[in-house]
Amino acid sequence: MVLKFFSSGRVSGGTGLVALVLAEKRIPFQHIHVDLSRQGQKSPEHLARQPFGQVPVIDDDGFVLYESRAICRYLAEKYPEHGPNLLPGPTIRERALFEQAASVEFADFHIFVVRLAGETVGKALRGLPIDPIALSPLLAQLGAKLDVYERILSRQAYIAGNELSLVDLFHLNTMPIIIDTSGLDIMSNPARPNVARWWESLTTRPAWIGLRRDGIRGTVP
Ligand SMILES: N[C@@H](CCC(=O)N[C@@H](CS)C(=O)NCC(=O)O)C(=O)O
């Protein structure tokens, strides 16, 4: 049975990550739209799939999985031969470096990005102007982390090593929508040329460009 992908249909957040891995790996799927504007994610039917009342969720022949990063790992593990291999290995050290990078993405990037999203995307959604005074410390906190990224990426092409991995793609969770909304050059600042080079390599991937252009389209109705 074809994989079912329950999503908001928005190419952002966790939904965007799962859609990207499906596209990178050309995995056939049926897209099932959960209408967040009507609180579809809180319906009893959806809560049975995702107890926190959120998207994304997949149903792979009765195996139901939520949490975007867990879904991406499952898909990368299940379809190693489809598209790029997104899980480093096979050695224990390669896997350990991948896990290290995965922790860094969550603890040293995503958490700061979420704070920034509140002050940019969150404000824009409420029709409020972005407040430069509130933004400044958030940009400084993230900037300090990106200075470390710059050092890491001056030694290797990607965040877990010299090969692209899921962890690189995880960085596309919320930052693109912040950049779209605010116009800030957070990831393409010339003061961090290696971060800019790495960011460019992610955001110009054909699968990402195609998703941003066409939206999430299931391969079966
Ligand atoms: N940690 C979750 C976060 C999921 C999440 O924040 N989903 C948002 C949309 S991207 C959502 O469902 N929001 C509606 C709600 O929380 O009621 C994941 O990565 O899957």
From TrEMBL:
Instruction: Please give the catalytic activity noted in the UniProt record.
Output: RX + glutathione = an S-substituted glutathione + a halide anion + H(+)
Q: Which residues form the GST N-terminal domain?
A: 2-83
Q: Which GO terms describe its biological process?
A: glutathione metabolic process
Q: Which UniProt keywords apply?
A: Transferase
Against InterPro entries, the record matches this protein to:
Glutathione-S-Trfase_C-like (IPR010987), Glutathione-S-Trfase_C_sf (IPR036282), Glutathione_S-Trfase (IPR040079), Glutathione_S-Trfase_N (IPR004045), GST_C (IPR004046), Thioredoxin-like_sf (IPR036249)
Q: What are the residue boundaries of the GST C-terminal domain, all occurrences included? A: 91-221
Q: Name one GO cellular component term.
A: cytoplasm
Which E.C. number(s) belong to this protein?
Answer: 2.5.1.18
> What is this enzyme's class at the first EC digit?
transferase
Any GO MF annotation of the entry? glutathione binding
Q: Which Pfam families does the protein's record reference?
A: GST_C, GST_N
Q: Which Gene3D superfamilies match?
A: 1.20.1050.10, Glutaredoxin
Q: Which PANTHER family match?
A: GLUTATHIONE S-TRANSFERASE RHO
Q: Which family does it belong to?
A: Belongs to the GST superfamily.
Q: Can you say what this protein is called?
A: glutathione transferase
Species per Swiss-Prot/TrEMBL record = Mycena indigotica
